[in-house]
Design brief:
The chain is mostly beta strands. About 5% of the residues lie in helices and about 40% in strands. It folds into 3 domains: about 10-155, Immunoglobulin-like; about 160-235 and about 380-410, Immunoglobulin-like (Sandwich), CATH 2.60.40; about 240-365, Immunoglobulin-like, CATH 2.60.40. A hairpin with a 2-residue loop joins strand 16 and strand 17.
């Protein structure tokens, strides 16, 4: 593994449409995060008309100030831009300057931490639905944002009751899980089969989300989605985990920490494909920034080059990728593994801020582009997965998709 530390080169490309809800698009901007009401692990969903506050943050890898501005865009249920104008969905102004920033302190890799919140003194949101925030560098003549955040605003008018089972319509306690749910809709819904549009996500992933669902039953103000093969998901396995909170000693999952000027390098233990279900309790792909240095603040956490390795035979016609929130849950160059012909294993190195991370390996065939858990992680019905159900509504003549209900349910935990 050490030779890959010496020859390490940072590679980064834009994460595609199968990305997670926050992602950077250039190598000098890293660790985009959203935090709802200061609570880690919450879905980025605000309630319309409430006191909810969503914090957005990211790091730019220098101590040079950049004049960043952000634009708020209203989106449809499929994340395409809606027909609404700014005045239709914003109370206040768009294209605002990010004024809250701080330089990192006592870090080997210099960076500037930028933050802003919505709503604030200059802008608030007027309608429900999906939203995208695009951040631009005013000093660059480019139409491409440097970081993108996707979040939602719900007006809770629909009740959702959901359940996840390992006993599915295509297998019995094997490698799948099936989501079933019921939506109680209000009286203004005239045609529930066509006006109600649910979307279901597994562990915040966008590559395998489900939409275009047809109701199984419609009775007495309820729409039921049960025994629907579109709602059968590959169960996968629990996420792997490592900790890089201390530059002086290896944390969980880390074999050694090596300083090769000017970077700290965390070498993870060699991973192997898993043939059984892991009983380890994970965080479903999330990460948490933390450091034992100083006071443990977001500007004192250093960056490390984290070196992953998978002891698996070479496969043709596809690639292995890391999967997790830290790499945007997308299939990009920065999280694609390469094969070492001499040592006979796959490897990739990714710069990450100190903290605790979840990750998995997925195989993506060149032809289909559809992630496959089996080669590295397997599929096991008893894996604890988190499913988020978003229920949108668009009535006859409406110009946008209203979000009228959101519900989160976990397998092995049951209803919440």
């Amino acid at each position: 593994m050490f030779k890959h530390i010496i020859t390490y080169i940072l590679l980064f490309v834009t994460v595609g449409v199968n990305a997670q809800f926050s992602r950077s698009t250039i190598p000098t901007v890293r660790t985009p995060q959203m935090l709802l009401n200061g609570n880690w692990g919450e879905m980025p969903v605000m309630s319309l008309g409430s006191d909810d506050v969503l914090q957005f943050s990211f790091d730019e890898m220098s101590h040079v100030y950049h004049r960043y501005t952000y634009r708020i865009i209203h989106c449809n249920a499929d994340w395409t831009q809606s027909e609404l104008f700014d005045i239709d969905y914003l109370e206040g102004f768009n294209d605002l300057i990010i004024e809250d920033w701080e330089n990192s302190v006592n870090t080997t890799q210099l960076y500037t931490h930028y933050e802003f919140v919505i709503p604030n003194d200059y802008v608030a949101l007027k309608v429900s639905g999906n939203y995208r925030v695009e951040v631009f560098d005013d000093e660059e003549e480019s139409d491409m944002p440097v970081v993108v955040f996707d979040f939602s605003v719900v007006e809770p008018k629909m009740m959702i009751d959901a359940f996840v089972s390992g006993d599915t319509d295509i297998s019995f306690n094997e490698g799948h899980q099936q989501v079933s749910f019921t939506v109680q809709y209000p009286s203004f819904v005239a045609s529930p089969a066509s006006e109600i549009k649910p979307v279901v996500y597994q562990n915040g992933r966008r590559d395998n989300f489900v939409s275009g669902l047809v109701p199984t039953y419609i009775t007495n103000g309820k729409v039921e989605y049960v025994h629907n093969e579109k709602l059968v998901f590959n169960a996968g396995n629990e996420y792997r985990r490592f900790e890089i909170a201390d530059p002086t000693s290896p944390g969980e999952g880390v074999e050694e920490v090596v300083y090769v000027e000017p970077y700290y390098n965390a070498v993870l233990y060699m991973d192997k494909p898993r043939v059984s279900h892991s009983s380890y309790r994970d965080e479903n792909g999330r990460f948490y920034v933390n450091t034992f240095e100083g006071f443990g603040t977001t500007i004192e956490a250093d960056y490390m080059n984290v070196h992953f390795a998978l002891d698996a035979p070479r496969r043709a016609d596809g690639s292995y990728y890391l999967l997790g929130d830290f790499c945007g849950n997308g299939f990009a160059l920065m999280n694609r593994l390469e094969y070492d012909e001499e040592e006979k294993y796959y490897f990739v190195s990714v710069p990450l801020k100190m903290g605790v991370y979840n990750y998995q390996y997925v195989w993506v065939p060149s032809k289909s582009g559809v992630a496959d858990n089996v080669p590295a992680e397997g599929n096991f019905y008893n894996t604890e997965n988190e499913y988020a159900i978003y229920v949108f509504y668009r009535g006859f003549g409406d110009r946008y998709d209203r979000l009228l209900g959101v519900h989160r349910v976990n397998y092995n935990i049951g209803r919440d």
